[in-house]
Amino acid sequence: MHLSRPFLFPLFCSLLTLATATAAKKPNVVIFLADDQGWGDLSIHGNTNLSTPNIDSLAADGALFDRFFVCSVCAPTRAEFLTGRYYARTGVRGVSTGQERLNSDEITVADTFKKAGYATAAFGKWHNGSQHPYHPNACGFDDYYGFTSGHWGNYFDPMLEHNGEITRGKGYITDDLTNKAIEFIEKHKDDPFFCYLPYNIPHSPMQVPDKFFEKFAERPLEMHHRDPSLEDMPHLRAALAMCENIDWNVGRVLKKLDQLSLAEDTIVIYFSDNGPNGYRWNGEMKGRKGSIDEGGLRVPFLIRWPGHIPAGRRVPQIAGAIDLLPTLADLAGIPLISEKPLDGLSIRPLLEGAAPDWPGRPIISYRPSFGKKRKGSGVSVRNQRYRLDAAGALFDLKDDPRQDNDVAAEQPGVVKKLQAVATKFQKEIADQAHPDDRPFPVGHNEITHLPARDGVAHGNTLRSAKAPNCSYFTNMKSPDDKITWDVEISRPGAYEVVLYHSVAPADVGCVIELSLGEAQLKKKITEAHDPPLYGMKEDRTPNRGSESYVRDWKAMTLGTIEFDSRTRGELTLRSSKIPGDQAVDVRLLILNRL
C-alpha cells in the first residue's frame, strides 16, 4: 500500500513527539537510609560475617563511594541529606526534645522534587520534628507513614502514624515500611516519583524476626572489632541479622522496579546515617556512633542508574550527605529552589568519571557541647587524605587508617589550613551553638502531636526511660506533679484534646486537668486501662539500653479547650484528684483544631 506524504507527515510528528517525551522523562528516585549501620556492615566492604547481596548489587550495577561521610548521630545526618546544608545551619542541634527540628524556612530535597512535578513519599523514621511545620507532610512529602521520633520501643505491629493519624503497623516494621513503599511505587509507576525509605534498624532495641536471627544465634564469627574485648555478642549478632533483613527488603524493592520495567528509569541510593551502634568489625577505623572520628562518620554509599552511571565504578574522592540534594537535582535535570547557599556539591562529575577539575574541598563534622564537658565535641575536618580531629590532632588516613599516630607536628601547613576551615565554620554557626529554645507550635496544622518526648516532668513525675524519644510519663502522685509542654498557639480557636494513656483500676476516678493561661478543661477518668508493658520477649539482648518498653495506649477525648489568642506558654497537664497511688501514665497528647 502506498502512503501519501500528507499521511506520513502527521505520523512522523507523532513519533517524534513520543520520542521526545520518552527522552525527556524524569528519572524516579528511591533512597534507602539505614539507621546505625556502619561502613563495615556490608559484605561488599569485606565483612564475611554477613551477606548483603542486594545492597552489594547496587555497586555492581552502579557506583560505590569509598569515602562517604555523614554525621555522628541520626537527626543531623537526615537534616544534611534533606537540605544539602550542614545541620548546624538548619536549626537541628540534637536528637530529641525538639533539638532535632529543621527550621521551617529550610527547603528540602522533597520540596525540590515536588516542585518539579514528582509524587513524593517517605516511609520510616523521620527524626526532624513531629509538629507542623516540621512534620514530613510540611517538608515536601505528600505521603508519610512511620514515626517522627528518633527511637521506637517495639518493632512488631508497632504504633505508627499515617499523615498525622495514629495507626497500627503490620508485622516487622522494616517489612511493613517496605510494603508501603512498594504500594507507592506501584501507584505512581506511570509518573515520576521520589520515594524515601529511612529504615530504623539496626538501631536498638535489637529486635528482628526469627528467620533472620537464627542464622546468627550460634554462628562462629570471623570478623571482629579492632578491640574484640569490647564486643557485646548478643548485640552484634542481632545487628548482623537486622542488616540482612534490610538487604532482603532492599531486594524486594529492586525486584518490584524490575517487574514494573522501571529499573532503567530509577536512581537508587543506599547509605547510612552514622557509624555502627556497637563495637563490631568496621575496617579498623577509630570511633563508632557518636564519635566524630572516622569510624563514627564514614558510612556505605552506593548509587545505581543504569545507562547513566557506569556499572562497577569506584569513586575515591570524598563526598557526603550534604552532596545528595544538589546531586539528585542535577541528575534529574530539575532546578534547585532553595535560596539559601548549599554546602554540598553535585557529585555527578565523579559518577560519570569526568572530573579533572574536581575541587579538593574539605568536609566538616560537628558535635556540639552546649557548655557540657562532652568528650569528642567540637569540629573535625576531613580532606582527601587527612583528618584534623576536635582536639587538634592530625591523622594521615592514607598511611594510618586507624588514627593511631598524630602527625600534626610533621604537617603544620595541613593543620593550619584545616584549622582555618574549622574556625571559620564555628564563627558561622555561633548563633546556633546553644540549646534549642523554640516552642512547639499548636494549630499550624489541623492535627498537632505533643508526645511525652517533647514534654517536661515536674515533681514526682518520671520518664519511663532515660532516652526521651519513645518514652512516656508516669508516677504522677500528687496535684503538684505535672507535665508541661512549651507551646505557641499558632491559630487561636477551639481544639479537641485526645490523651493516649493508661490507668490502673485503683486510680479510676482521677481527674485530669489541662491548662494554658486562662484556657483549661477537666476530665474524670471512669474506666481502667492497664495493659502490661511489652517488648522484652522480642529483644535479642539482655540489656535493652535506653529505649522504653511500650504498652497499648488508650485514646480518650478529654474535651475541648479554647485558646483566645496567639500566645506562648506552658501547656500543663496535672491530676487534681488521685484516688490511688498515682494518676494516668501519659504517652501522647493530640490537639485537633476544630
Molecular structure report:
By secondary structure, the chain is of the alpha+beta class. It has 3 domains: 24-355, Alkaline Phosphatase, subunit A (3-Layer(aba) Sandwich), CATH 3.40.720.10; 364-432, Arylsulfatase, C-terminal domain; 440-593, Galactose-binding domain-like (Jelly Rolls, Sandwich), CATH 2.60.120.260. Helix content is 21%, strand content 25%. The protein is built from 11 helices and 29 strands. It has helices at 5-23, 53-61, 74-83, 109-115, 173-187, 210-213, 233-259, 294-297, 324-332, 348-352, 412-428, and strands at residues 28-35, 63-65, 68-69, 119-125, 143-147, 159-162, 165-168, 193-202, 266-272, 298-299, 301-304, 313-315, 319-320, 363-367, 378-382, 386-388, 394-396, 440-442, 447-451, 456-458, 462-463, 473-474, 482-489, 493-502, 511-516, 519-524, 554-563, 568-577, 585-593. A 10-stranded mixed beta sheet has the order 7-6-5-4-8-1-9-11-2-12, with helices on both faces. Strands 18, 20, 23, 25, 26 and 28 form a 6-stranded mixed beta sheet that branches. A hairpin with a 5-residue loop joins strand 16 (386-388) and strand 17. Helix 5 runs parallel beside helix 7 (233-259). The longest helix is centred in the middle third of the chain and has 27 residues, at 233-259.
Question: Structural class of the helix and strand makeup?
Answer: alpha+beta
Strand content: 25-35%
**Rounded mean pLDDT score:** 94
Proportion of helical residues: 10-25%
Name the CATH homologous superfamily of the largest domain: Alkaline Phosphatase, subunit A
Which of globular, elongated, flat, extended, rod-shaped describes the shape? globular
CATH class (first level) name of the largest domain: Alpha Beta
> Per CATH, which architecture of the largest domain?
3-Layer(aba) Sandwich
Numbering strands along the chain, what is their spatial order in the largest sheet? 7-6-5-4-8-1-9-11-2-12
The CATH topology of the largest domain turns out to be Alkaline Phosphatase, subunit A
Number of strands: 29
**pLDDT under 50 segments (min length 5)?**
1-23
Largest sheet: 10 strands, mixed
Q: What integer value in Å does the Rg equal?
A: 25 Å
Number of H- or I-type helical stretches: 11
Terminus-to-terminus distance: 70 Å
| Tally of distinct domains | 3
